[in-house]
């Protein structure tokens, strides 16, 4: 029986994804459909799609394993990933939608009237997207290895293929439907087993309640370095969410600014409901003595319940995990593809490729590179890479978006300087994490969680250089601010 | 956060729409001093609202690491049998974030409604002055 429930779940999820993607293709005809679903997605559906896209391998598998290993201090990950949407809601959601741009580089160019800023943003979108895609493919390999016993590269390649076919054939419209479906699949796949396992746990006499010691209930690490690490993580997740390319691209699919806000509010509810569950798995894992691996969620059902019920529950969580890789990779692939297709492929080979053709070639490149990296270098830490993607996003796109939306004084030069300082600073942390994981002293702590210094540094640089080059504030700035902040019902000239 | 203001009531006569829709927003489009004042007021209002919500977020959720750092004994506190950190970070924080977001959306939409009303009043004022001429 070993492997059968996992295999059934995997095939079912892949088939459902492709079927819904094909159904979406029949509705998806124009280039605008491909990129942003022609901006006609309702808040409820759009919020489910955002939830489906956002809840990645790190949320489905990683959080429970981290909490089991290190206790309550790891709860800051799900809290930060949700609170990031609140920050996004109050500072960015409606103006970003009203900017009327397709992607982050589009926004940067429209706001600052600078090709250089656009090019830099494109590079950053691709970098953050690949940094985030890599652990998704690795997680897929891990999951398949645990569920079916396949070699690690099989899972990565399966997910990569399904994503390329889904994204390349249907674009954003089909992805919207697929991801909305996958949010509810993921919630069900985590909720039902959790309820069954809790019932069994009560029947077993509720073991493990007393075992929750003080150390496991401490929401931060020991000493000043623990405090620094926690606050740096809080800053990276609270501010990084708005800068993730697959999150931002979703806001352009709302009909207007008001709908963008309401969508974000529903997302807060959906994420909150989901993130109640991983701590339950961590607690049960501790009560039943599970091994603290990334596969905790997949192995817990068999550990607690024997027989066919355990098999069914294992199949369910495997399906959910697989949906997590598929949806997040699809969203990231769409975002990276959008940038590649618009800035690289149509620029150089404008004659050779149509809009839709460029999108399909872009999808293959967007998925191919991180897939190759995941297969060739399978030993990078999964959770660290996702955390650092947040730190890089918080140090680059967060200052650009906040100052671009709320401050008239931002200049192209200031933006370039800030993006470079924030990007290089936080990337130093990435390189450090990849090259060396040893824990020496304060220097290691500062590099391992760079957000607490790299975000303020990026803001200061952007502000300072903009003040020095204040003569270069784009002439259309005021008109653009009008467009960002005026409700759509007011018929102003939006440029 | 500020206490709820009573809804703005217009005490003018029945609406007189003699202007075309574009004329109503001419002050903003033409970037006159008056249009600038309108836009600045909306921008200030929305930014102040956003910063108020963020301040509440920092004071409540953001202060928790410092609180537990300064008073490690809190980790042993168990209301309802659940350790405090788990109760707050594993459960209560999520409805709290949703409540903050919900209040923000309501207020932001009200600010925008007020802004639209302000433009309409300006329109009516213009119409009256045209009538006096």
SSE topology sketch:
The complex is a heterodimer of chains A (495) and B (133).
Chain A: H1 4-27, H2 31-36, H3 43-54, H4 57-70, H5 76-91, H6 93-98, H7 104-112, H8 115-148, H9 152-203, H10 223-240, H11 245-251, H12 257-275, H13 278-287, H14 296-304, H15 307-348, H16 355-376, H17 382-406, H18 412-435, H19 442-448, H20 451-468, H21 477-485
Helix pairs in contact in A: 1-9, 1-15, 3-9, 3-12, 4-13, 4-15, 5-10, 5-12, 7-8, 7-17, 8-9, 8-15, 8-16, 8-17, 8-18, 9-13, 9-15, 9-16, 10-17, 10-20, 11-15, 14-15, 15-16, 17-18, 17-20, 18-20
Chain B: H1 21-24, H2 26-29, H3 33-62, H4 64-70, H5 84-132
Helix pairs in contact in B: 3-5
Word description of this protein:
The complex is a heterodimer of chains A (495) and B (133). Chain A has helices at residues 4-27, 31-36, 43-54, 57-70, 76-91, 93-98, 104-112, 115-148, 152-203, 223-240, 245-251, 257-275, 278-287, 296-304, 307-348, 355-376, 382-406, 412-435, 442-448, 451-468, 477-485. By secondary structure, chain A is mainly α. The model of chain A has no long low-confidence stretch (mean pLDDT 81). Chain B is mostly helical and 133 residues long. Chain B has one domain. In chain B, α3 packs antiparallel against α5. The longest helix of chain B is centred in the last third of the chain and has 49 residues, at 84-132. The model of chain B is unreliable at 13-24 (pLDDT under 50). Chains A and B meet through α5, α10, α12 and α21 of A and α1, α3, α4 and α5 of B.
In short:
The complex is a heterodimer of chains A (495) and B (133). By secondary structure, chain A is mainly α. Helix content of chain A is 77%, strand content 0%.
Give the helix level of chain B as a range of percent. over 70%
Distance between termini of chain B? 45 Å
Largest sheet of chain A: none
CATH fold-type name of chain A: Sodium/glucose cotransporter
Share of helix among residues of chain A?
A: over 70%
Task: Please report the total strand number of chain B as a whole number.
Answer: 0
Shape of chain A: globular
| SSE topology string of chain A | HHHHHHHHHHHHHHHHHHHHH
Shape of chain B: elongated
């Amino acid at each position: 029986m070993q492997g059968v429930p996992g295999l059934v779940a995997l095939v079912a999820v892949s088939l459902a994804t492709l079927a819904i993607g094909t159904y979406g293709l029949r509705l998806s005809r124009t280039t605008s459909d491909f990129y942003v679903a022609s901006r006609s997605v309702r808040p409820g559906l759009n919020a489910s799609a955002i939830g489906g896209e956002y809840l990645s391998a790190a949320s489905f598998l990683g959080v429970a394993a981290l909490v089991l290993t290190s206790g309550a201090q790891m709860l800051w990950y799900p809290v930060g990933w949700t609170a990031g949407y609140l920050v996004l809601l109050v500072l960015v959601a409606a103006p970003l939608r009203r900017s009327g741009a397709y992607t982050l580089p589009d926004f940067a160019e429209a706001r600052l009237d600078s090709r250089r800023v656009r090019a830099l943003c494109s590079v950053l979108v691709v970098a953050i997207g690949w940094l985030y895609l890599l652990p998704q493919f690795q997680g897929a390999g891990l999951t398949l290895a645990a569920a079916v016993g396949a070699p690690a590269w099989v899972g990565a390649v399966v997910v990569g293929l399904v994503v390329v076919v889904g994204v390349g054939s249907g674009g954003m419209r089909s992805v919207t439907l697929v991801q909305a479906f996958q949010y509810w699949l993921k919630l069900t796949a985590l909720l039902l087993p959790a309820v069954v396992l809790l019932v069994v746990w009560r029947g077993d006499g509720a073991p493990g309640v007393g075992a929750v010691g003080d150390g496991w209930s401490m929401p931060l690490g020991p000493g000043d370095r623990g405090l620094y690490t926690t606050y740096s993580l809080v800053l990276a997740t609270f501010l990084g969410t708005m800068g993730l390319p697959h999150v931002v691209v979703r806001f352009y699919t709302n009909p207007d600014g008001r709908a963008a806000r309401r969508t974000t509010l529903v997302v807060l509810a959906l994420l909150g409901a989901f993130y109640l569950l991983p701590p339950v798995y961590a607690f049960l894992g501790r009560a039943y003595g599970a091994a603290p691996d990334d596969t905790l969620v997949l192995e817990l059902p068999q550990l607690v319940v024997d027989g066919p019920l355990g098999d069914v529950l294992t199949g369910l969580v495997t399906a959910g995990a697989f949906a997590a890789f598929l949806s997040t990779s699809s969203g990231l692939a769409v975002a990276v593809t959008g940038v590649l297709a618009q800035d690289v492929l149509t620029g150089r080979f404008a004659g050779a490729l149509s809009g839709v053709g460029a999108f399909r070639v872009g999808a293959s490149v967007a998925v191919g590179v991180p897939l190759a990296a995941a297969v060739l270098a399978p030993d990078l830490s999964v959770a660290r890479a996702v955390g650092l993607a947040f730190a890089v996003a918080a140090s680059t796109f967060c200052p650009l978006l906040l100052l671009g939306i709320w401050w008239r004084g931002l200049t192209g030069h200031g933006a370039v300087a800030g993006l470079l300082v924030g990007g290089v600073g936080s990337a130093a942390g990435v390189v450090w994490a990849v090259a060396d994981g040893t824990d020496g002293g304060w220097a290691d702590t500062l590099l391992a969680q760079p957000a607490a210094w790299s975000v303020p540094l990026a803001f200061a640089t952007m502000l300072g250089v903009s003040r020095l080059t204040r003569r270069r504030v784009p002439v259309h700035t005021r008109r653009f601010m009008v467009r960002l902040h005026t409700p759509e019902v007011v018929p102003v000239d939006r440029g | 956060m500020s206490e709820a203001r009573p809804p703005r009531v217009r005490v003018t006569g029945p609406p007189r729409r003699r202007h075309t829709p574009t004329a109503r927003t001419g002050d903003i489009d033409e970037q006159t001093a008056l249009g600038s004042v309108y836009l600045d007021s909306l921008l200030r209002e929305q930014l102040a609202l956003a910063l108020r919500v963020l301040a509440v977020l920092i004071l409540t959720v953001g202060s928790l690491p410092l609180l537990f750092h300064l008073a490690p004994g809190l980790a042993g506190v168990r209301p309802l049998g659940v350790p405090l950190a788990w109760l707050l970070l594993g459960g209560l924080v999520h409805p709290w974030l949703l409540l903050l977001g919900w209040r923000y959306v309501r207020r932001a939409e009200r600010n925008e409604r007020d802004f639209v009303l302000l433009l309409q009043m300006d329109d009516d004022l213009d119409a009256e002055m045209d009538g006096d001429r």
